[in-house]
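To whoever is on call:

I kicked off a structure prediction for a single chain this morning and the downstream step that reads the tokens threw a length-mismatch warning. I double-checked the sequence; it's 152 residues and nothing unusual in it as far as I can see. Pasting both halves so you can look.
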Amino acid sequence: MKTLRVAPLSAEHIDRVLAIDKASQSSPWSKESFQVELDRPQGVFLVAIGDGVVVGFAGAWLVLDEAHVTNVAVDPARRRQGIARKLIRELLERVKSDGATCATLEVRAGNEPAVRLYEAFGFRSVGRRKGYYPNDGEDALVMWLDDMSDVK
């Protein structure tokens, strides 16, 4: 990939985001769910565009001073190229500039690469939601980033 940039989600990105979500998640969001993100005032939703094509996305909702990371996904053919790292960094920077002082997320307990990536940003596992994922009953780890002051 020659170029990679991060941009806010727009209507023209939704079909590609849907395809990535379907290929990445066992319980993908609906088209309507992504469309709501276009106008959510307390949210940040970003896409990664590589060589002119959406290759990943990430979103978060702001609740007072807390950011809740809703989802992060990268096209399976483009994984392990630093795209998720770039998306998460940009997402955290933007929610921090919008007033977030901490962040939380849920991640599949068995998704070790994602857990390690979140840990690299300072997230720590603080709990487990048993049977969180409806399609297979896998547990979710609840992770927190208590202090966003180091997010750069």
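Update from on-call: the warning came from a stale cache, not from the record. Cleared it. Sanity check on the structure: The helical segments are 14-24, 31-37, 83-97, 112-120.
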